[in-house]
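User: Teach me something about this protein's shape.
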Amino acid sequence: MKLYDKNAVAKFLDMTPKNVQRLTEKGILQTKQGGLYSLVEATHAYIRYLRDRNPENEENIDLNEERAKLTKAKRLNEELDLSVKKGELHKAEDIEKIMSATLINFKSRLSAIPAEEAEKLATMTDKAKIFVYLNGRIKETLAELSNFEEVFKEEIKEDEEGND
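Assistant: First, the predicted structure itself:
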């Protein structure tokens, strides 16, 4: 068996000779005759050292801890499902769908005001009456936006009926 000095071992393990010396002092690496190292034994010892230091090492898995984590994850999943069923929690895709539909409808309603009201406004000359009239139309459109909960309930009913 060929033996190597700490410089050769350091080069092979991609570290400094000083680190090889520290690992030797800690008892991780073992020297043979005259302070020389077996390259194979030093490499294996270093690999074992790295494995033992790694907390994610598969050999050191605590099965009870893993079962507890799995049980906790399952419980959390069940709690979330129950919250969805109770209507306390909503899926992001449902919220996105409802908000998109509401905002598209709102935009359409606002955009339609000039075309719908142009003829009536053309006959009006009193600025105060024009203001009151347009303000009423805008408030009516805004009321729809503030009433999105009703639209949301209807959409949820449709989704539930579609999933059954």
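Now, about its shape. The chain has three domains: 3-59, 61-89, 91-163. The mean pLDDT is 84. If you'd like, I can walk through any region in more detail.
User: That's plenty for now, thanks!
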